């Protein structure tokens, strides 16, 4: 403890030492205080920091570099404002967005930091702002207050140092959880005794694990182990507890809540990646053009410019043609920079934002029952929704409703719950005043058995009423409300309640049950809680007679292994029942009990205590201790809970598979349940040639099963050595060709082997050749691994959909994560990119929104690159006539405004509103989804076509005015070959040609499109005349020296004939090609679109 | 209170049923059907052909005569003289002859043409000060640095008009003579004004104005451009209102040509002053007497004299009618091909049955 002085270092904290009520001591460690700052800027730092961040974008830096180039007079071929205006515009749009975001963060930070809390200072409670709370302080919390920092619960107003919290803000779960203080501190109930408390906590450093905490309290020469059960985390709300005291362990940024709010990994779409590649290519292209023109300049300066020096001497630093060429290169880089449009990224973001709003606004993805609209939580992935090839779906809560109903049970080898639909009659539970009125059950036999007092049946329901973690709330006598962490538990406890075993209340050490009208209080000795590995939970209770019994419920596979051998026959019968239930798609649990002698209990309790106190591997030791007692149990029976399919699931799956999307179900359920759900949602059909089931426990077995299946298709495969060697390259295509006939079901333990490096390829090829793949009994990590495997090898877009915490890793791994905003909390939603509340909305999200987004984005990009090439390449051609001197063709204002005013809005409108076929058609013809999967609408080939078209347009735009104007004169004899007339003519032709082109590209002319297209043309002419007006010229003669050109040029019939000719020459080939394509190779969307009209 | 708000919020979560938000805005979805595209192609093609024919006919009524005088006839000598800078100040006169086989009907325009002279170089085009030319006194004495090395002399005297464009102003002057068969040569009267844009002459170019000072006095503290023989206020010896920055030859020169081969208007035939030229220039022999000042051999250039008449759409222009004819024919051809393809190979509707 003396060494603690050396903990000053900046190096990462290795362990945390906190002494209560000793600010001086705790300050030595410089722990973060409780002030949180999620905002990034303040008023002074906003500009520099925000600019610094923005200039980390390559595109922005590039334009800054250009701006600097333009400030060098020898190079500057364009006024500085041609770059700075768009750059400032783009930067300020982003800055305004960042500033608004940050303003709201500031507001919420201030609100949170200024919350009041009661801190124990010098023995008295004082009100302090949250931000002034320090590590080591003791604070008092009252009911319904937010917990200010991560606290160690010291004492509470409730008995046994208990307190209840709601963790909705932390993990989204709305049920209450119990926390309990250490018995030694729970007596410290008043400020005076707490002020004397000088315990020291040594614990793990700050981390983001919400469900575990490991530490030790040293107090009065004693050591006490601390766990998550003793902690109140920041963000929780105190419920049903009058007040409590806690010791601040982690404050502010160190709290688990803040540690968890790290940025999630940024997802990029394939179009994004393609776009970045293309922008790089364009850079290369730009440099090439610069080099060509610079060489041209060198030759020209040597041959002609050198002679022309008497009229135009070289500028002082230039003394030879090579240097001149060097400068010309940079000058041309400046002029031609518009091929890399600065507004591209901003426009793409705007379009995606628009699409996201359309998703949020869609009434057909709004769930009336849950009052939840769909939500695009990420706005940058929309077009990828149009390219999905693999869907990985969770089952429970995603395909099914996750509303559990107690459906059947098997008690002591007797099955209950079978009934005939025709004679179905709801059981009458009126004998039981505490029964839940919503509960339905149809088998009279079970009720009779209860009434007859069959001991096994009683024990069965007693177990159900005791072995759970449900909390009860009884607002008035007889009005029981259960709050369950999982709907399964709720369903089971409710079933017990209706059959006369009513769970009424619990304290940490007792459970009170109303057994057929008689209130019985059991002493709760231990809860052996549930987790994903154990897959079972047990309680140990002492009944009023003093008998100690362990009740256990859990997964069949695990429980059957732990039964007493004398249960063998019963187990077989029950097992048959279980198989039946699973075949009906029901979720099953096996129930068992074990009688414990006082001695056994004492021994075990001691072992458990020592495990709990252990400093390291505490969880493993506890698990081992649990394992020890859950042995030799007596089988009671099994329950079967029905999880109903969600509305429209089979239809959705059918439509999605018609759209060539492969659906893999990854579930934690057992194989029979999973297969059954597969059948009921039409993933598996009887038409399938075969459903392969891989269930091997060893590497060898799994490999054999896998290759066996391949052998089933290709007898010759068996001769080939499969061991370890990657499959022949021809195999995947062969397998692809026969897809559609097979289905694969693989269980978690086999999957573990199949995902190993040497077998994953084989597994993937087999799985991809199957029409349906179901992985059952998989862990959350395996879900993510499967997604990762497909992502790695298939180069396909993957989508993961799920609703629970166990789907989070898969949702984060897939290209697109979709969360079902359902009942299992909102962790999945928080990790997801899109969320809605019904699985069937997926078809609309993909086939309508995704398809449109992809289509729009592709059309937008094609046009965007086209228009910039058409615009910029004219300078290139003009270079050959102006001695490669980097003279621009257009007025500098035109260059400034072309991208941001004249041509931005029509293409944005197209990118946001365009539709090729009406929405109902894309659902009727799922094949319309295919172009997105095959990436047909925008790829490198399409890009080159756009570029070629742009270059063709630029050639026409240069040559036609050149051919006409170089010789032409006006009808008053004045030649038209002056530079300004040429500039105005080319610019006007360009604006008209690209407007006609966008008109051709727009497939869906709303009023907004009309307004933008005509408005842009109008804006062009208005601004043109304004820029060339007398007023501006008389104020800034040197800046607006194009004065008069618009009037003089645009009244000439020759000029209009030129513009018309250029437009016709540009558009006719495009129109002809499109018509031919439509005629000879019509796409499905064309024919579907046509048939509407 | 808060609960009510929450309730209201909860009720409002259903998105509005507006056409905009549900993407059901009324819209027009055009598509390229044969019924629209093919007639459009035919009409467009025919329209282009007709326009081409019309333009061709109109253009045939215009004429243009172009005579290169760089080193033709007696100008050869002047060409040699101008080869050497030492002779820069020496005057040189020469003349060339040509004959018109047909009369040039109507208004006749006299141009000078330059070949291989780059008025479109970036630094050349930047090298001017429009504020100075607008007559700003401040700029007159202190021209913009954009004028480059041509903004002042070494001794600090500002140049008016400054810049490379003004400095390189074309300074040959011409007199056109008609040689009737019987009579002595007759000087063809040319308007030397009205040859620039109206906006240039009246708004863009102004002489600097100082009350009670004559033009030479205003320009006193400035110097003429390096290559000029006369100061700007003495450019037109015959017309005092055509001097200074509003001299039309200067204005014409200052409107830079877009391409290295260009012609600029020098004068317009004055049809009123003489009966002989009322209908235009009669057929016969002509000579142009030239004051040969502008050296072109440095940059391997050529100089021309051009005479031309105009129609409603301007002077002679072969490109436009031919381009229209070709475009029209190609469009019609494309239309025919498209029609054939449509009838023979069209797959319309086949896919729907799949």
Whole-number tally of structural domains of chain B: 2
In what range is the share of β-strand residues of chain B? 15-25%
- pLDDT < 50 runs, ≥5 residues of chain B: 349-354
- The residue ranges of chain A in which pLDDT falls below 50 over 5 or more consecutive positions are 1-10, 714-740
Strand line-up in the sheet with most strands of chain A: 14-33-32-31-15-27-30-29-28
Helical residues, percent of chain B: 25-40%
Organism (chain B): Paramormyrops kingsleyae
Subcellular location (chain B): Membrane
InterPro entries (chain B): CDC50/LEM3_fam
Protein name (chain B): Cell cycle control protein
Report what the structure shows.
Chain B: It is found in: Membrane. Chain B: Belongs to the CDC50/LEM3 family. Chain B: InterPro entries: CDC50/LEM3_fam (IPR005045). Chain B: Keywords: Membrane, Transmembrane, Transmembrane helix. Chain B: This is Cell cycle control protein. The complex is a heterodimer of chains A (1093) and B (354). Chain A is α+β, with helices and mostly antiparallel strands. Chain A has 39 helices and 33 strands. In chain A, α33 (940-965) packs antiparallel against α34 (979-1001), α33 runs antiparallel to α38 and α34 (979-1001) packs antiparallel against α35. Chain A is elongated and about 120 Å long. The N and C termini of chain A lie far apart (84 Å). The model of chain A is unreliable at 1-10 and 714-740 (pLDDT under 50). By secondary structure, chain B is of the alpha+beta class. Chain B has two domains: 33-62 and 317-354; 65-310, no CATH class. Chain B is built from twelve helices and eleven strands. In chain B, strands 1-11-4-8-7 form a five-stranded antiparallel sheet. In chain B, strands 2-10-5-6 form a four-stranded antiparallel sheet. In chain B, α2 (34-60) packs antiparallel against α11 (319-345). The relative contact order of chain B is 0.22. Chains A and B meet through α11, α33, α34, α35 and α36 of A and α2, α4, α5, α8 and β8 of B.
């Amino acid at each position: 403890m003396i060494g603690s002085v050396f903990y000053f270092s900046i190096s990462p904290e290795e362990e945390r030492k906190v002494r209560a009520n000793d600010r001086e001591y705790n300050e030595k460690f410089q722990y973060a205080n409780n002030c949180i700052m999620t905002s990034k800027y303040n008023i002074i730092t906003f500009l520099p920091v925000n600019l610094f961040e923005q200039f980390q974008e390559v595109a922005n830096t590039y334009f800054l570099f250009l701006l600097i180039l333009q400030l060098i007079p020898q190079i500057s071929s364009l006024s500085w404002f041609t770059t700075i205006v768009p750059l400032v515009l783009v930067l300020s749009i982003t800055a305004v967005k960042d500033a608004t975001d940050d303003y709201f963060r500031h507001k919420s930070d201030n609100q949170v930091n200024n919350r009041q809390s009661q801190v124990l200072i010098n023995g008295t409670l004082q009100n302090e702002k949250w931000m002034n709370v320090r590590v080591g302080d003791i604070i008092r919390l009252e009911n319904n207050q937010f917990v200010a920092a991560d606290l160690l619960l010291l004492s509470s107003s409730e008995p046994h140092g208990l307190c209840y919290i709601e963790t909705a803000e932390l993990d989204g779960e709305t049920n209450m959880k119990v926390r309990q203080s250490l018995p030694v501190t729970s007596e410290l109930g008043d400020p005076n005794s707490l002020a004397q408390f000088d315990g020291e906590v040594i614990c793990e450093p700050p981390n983001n694990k919400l469900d575990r905490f490991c530490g030790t309290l040293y107090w009065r020469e004693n050591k006490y182990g601390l766990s998550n059960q003793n902690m109140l985390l920041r963000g929780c709300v105190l419920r049903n507890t009058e007040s409590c005291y806690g010791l601040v362990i982690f404050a502010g940024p160190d709290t688990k809540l803040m540690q968890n709010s790290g940025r999630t990994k940024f997802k990029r779409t394939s179009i994004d990646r393609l776009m970045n590649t293309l922008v790089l290519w364009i850079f290369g292209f730009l440099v090439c053009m610069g080099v060509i023109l610079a060489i041209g300049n060198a030759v020209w300066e040597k041959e002609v410019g050198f002679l022309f020096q008497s009229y135009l001497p070289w500028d002082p630093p230039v003394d030879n043609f090579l240097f001149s060429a060097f400068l010309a290169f940079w000058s041309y880089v400046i002029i031609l920079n518009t091929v890399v449009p600065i507004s591209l990224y901003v426009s793409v973001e705007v379009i995606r934002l628009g699409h996201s709003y359309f998703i949020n606004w869609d009434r057909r993805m709004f769930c009336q029952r849950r009052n939840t609209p769909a939500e695009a939580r990420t706005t940058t992935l929309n077009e990828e929704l149009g390219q999905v090839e693999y869907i990985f779906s969770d089952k429970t809560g995603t395909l099914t409703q996750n509303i559990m109903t107690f459906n059947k049970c098997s008690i002591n080898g007797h099955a209950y719950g079978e009934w005939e639909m025709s004679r179905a009659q709801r059981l009458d539970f009126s004998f039981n005043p505490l029964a839940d009125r919503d509960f339905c059950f149809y088998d009279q036999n079970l009720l009779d058995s209860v009434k007859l007092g069959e001991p096994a049946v009683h024990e069965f329901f007693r177990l159900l009423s005791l072995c759970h973690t449900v909390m009860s709330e009884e607002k008035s006598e007889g009005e029981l409300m259960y709050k369950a962490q999982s709907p399964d538990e709720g369903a089971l406890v409710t079933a017990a309640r209706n059959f006369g075993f009513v769970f009424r209340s619990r304290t940490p050490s007792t459970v009170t049950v109303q057994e057929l009208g008689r209130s019985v209080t059991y002493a709760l000795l231990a809860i052996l809680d549930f987790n994903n590995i154990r897959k079972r939970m047990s309680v140990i209770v002492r009944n009023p007679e003093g008998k100690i019994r362990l009740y256990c419920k859990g997964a069949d596979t695990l429980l059957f292994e732990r039964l007493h051998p004398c249960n063998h026959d019963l187990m077989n019968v029950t097992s048959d029942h279980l198989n039946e239930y699973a075949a009906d798609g029901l979720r099953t649990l096996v129930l068992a009990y074990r009688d414990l002698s006082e001695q056994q209990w004492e021994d075990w309790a001691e072992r458990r205590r020592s495990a709990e106190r252990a400093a390291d591997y505490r969880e493993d030791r506890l698990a081992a201790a649990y394992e020890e007692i859950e042995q030799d149990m007596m089988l009671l029976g099994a329950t079967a809970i029905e999880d109903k399919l969600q509305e429209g699931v089979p239809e959705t799956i059918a439509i999605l598979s018609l759209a060539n999307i492969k659906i893999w179900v990854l579930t934690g359920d057992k194989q029979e349940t999973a297969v059954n759900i597969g059948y009921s949602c039409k993933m598996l059909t009887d038409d399938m040639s075969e459903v392969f089931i891989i269930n091997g426990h060893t590497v060898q077995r799994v490999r054999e099963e896998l290759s066996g299946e391949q052998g089933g298709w290709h007898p010759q495969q068996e001769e080939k050595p499969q061991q370890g060697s990657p499959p022949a390259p021809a195999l995947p295509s062969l397998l692809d060709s026969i897809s559609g006939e097979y289905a694969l079901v693989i269980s978690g333990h086999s999957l573990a082997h199949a995902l190993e490096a040497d077998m994953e390829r084989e597994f993937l090829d087999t799985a991809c050749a199957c029409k349906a793949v179901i992985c059952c009994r998989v862990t959350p990590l395996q879900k993510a691994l499967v997604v990762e495997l497909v992502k790695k090898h298939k180069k396909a877009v993957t989508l993961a959909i799920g609703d629970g915490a166990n789907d989070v890793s898969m949702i984060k791994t897939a290209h697109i994560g979709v969360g079902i905003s359902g009942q299992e909390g909102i962790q999945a939603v928080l990790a997801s990119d899109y969320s809605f509340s019904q699985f069937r909305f997926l078809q609309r999200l993909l086939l309508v929104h995704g398809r449109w987004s992809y289509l729009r984005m592709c059309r937008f990009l094609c046009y965007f690159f086209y228009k910039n090439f058409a615009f910029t390449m004219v300078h290139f051609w003009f270079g050959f006539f102006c001695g490669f001197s980097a003279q621009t063709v257009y007025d500098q204002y035109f260059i400034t405004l072309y991208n941001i005013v004249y041509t931005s809005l029509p293409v944005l409108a197209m990118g946001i509103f365009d539709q090729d076929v009406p929405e109902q058609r894309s659902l009727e013809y799922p094949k319309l989804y295919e172009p997105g999967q095959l990436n047909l609408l925008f790829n490198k080939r399409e890009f080159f076509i756009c570029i070629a078209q742009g270059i063709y347009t630029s050639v026409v735009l240069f040559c036609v005015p050149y051919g006409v104007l170089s010789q032409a004169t006006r009808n008053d004899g004045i030649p038209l070959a002056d530079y300004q007339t040429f500039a105005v003519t080319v610019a006007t032709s360009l604006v008209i040609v690209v407007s006609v082109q966008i008109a051709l590209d727009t497939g869906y002319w709303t009023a907004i499109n009309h307004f933008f297209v005509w408005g842009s043309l109008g804006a062009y002419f208005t601004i043109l005349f304004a820029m060339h007006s007398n007023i501006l010229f008389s104020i800034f003669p040197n800046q607006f020296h194009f004065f008069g050109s618009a009037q003089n040029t645009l009244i000439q019939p020759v000029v209009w004939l030129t513009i018309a000719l250029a437009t016709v020459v540009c558009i006719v080939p495009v129109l002809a090609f499109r018509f031919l394509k439509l005629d000879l190779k019509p796409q499905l969307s064309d024919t579907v679109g046509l048939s509407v009209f | 209170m808060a609960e009510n708000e929450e309730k209201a919020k909860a009720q409002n979560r259903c998105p509005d049923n507006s056409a905009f938000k549900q993407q059901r805005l009324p819209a027009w979805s055009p598509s390229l059907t044969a019924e629209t595209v093919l007639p459009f192609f035919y009409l467009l093609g025919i329209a282009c052909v007709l326009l081409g024919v019309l333009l061709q006919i109109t253009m045939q009524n215009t004429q243009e005569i172009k005579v290169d005088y760089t080193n033709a006839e007696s100008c050869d000598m002047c060409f040699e003289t101008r080869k050497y800078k030492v002779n820069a100040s020496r005057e040189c006169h020469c003349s060339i002859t040509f004959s018109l086989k047909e009369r040039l009907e109507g208004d006749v325009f006299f141009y000078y043409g330059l070949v291989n002279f780059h008025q479109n170089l970036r630094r050349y085009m930047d090298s001017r000060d429009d504020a100075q030319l607008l007559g700003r006194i401040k700029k007159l004495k202190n021209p913009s640095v954009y004028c480059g090395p041509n903004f002042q002399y070494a001794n600090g005297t500002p140049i008016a008009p400054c810049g490379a464009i003004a400095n390189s102003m074309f300074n040959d002057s011409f007199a056109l003579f008609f040689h009737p068969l019987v009579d002595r040569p007759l000087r063809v009267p040319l308007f030397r004004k009205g040859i620039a844009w109206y906006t240039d002459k009246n708004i863009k170019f102004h002489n600097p104005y100082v009350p009670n000072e004559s033009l030479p006095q205003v320009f006193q503290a400035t110097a003429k451009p390096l290559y000029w023989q006369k100061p700007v206020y003495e450019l037109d010896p015959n017309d005092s209102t055509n001097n200074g920055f509003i001299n039309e030859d200067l204005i014409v020169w200052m409107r830079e040509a877009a391409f290295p081969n260009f012609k600029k208007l020098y004068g317009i035939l004055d049809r009123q002053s003489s009966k002989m030229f009322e209908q235009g220039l009669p057929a016969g022999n002509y000579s142009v007497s030239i004051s040969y000042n502008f050296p072109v051999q440095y940059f391997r250039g050529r100089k021309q004299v051009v005479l031309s008449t105009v129609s409603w759409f301007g002077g002679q222009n072969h490109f436009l009618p031919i381009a229209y004819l070709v475009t029209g024919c190609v469009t019609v051809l494309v239309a025919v091909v498209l029609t054939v393809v449509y009838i023979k190979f069209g797959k319309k509707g086949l896919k729907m049955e799949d």
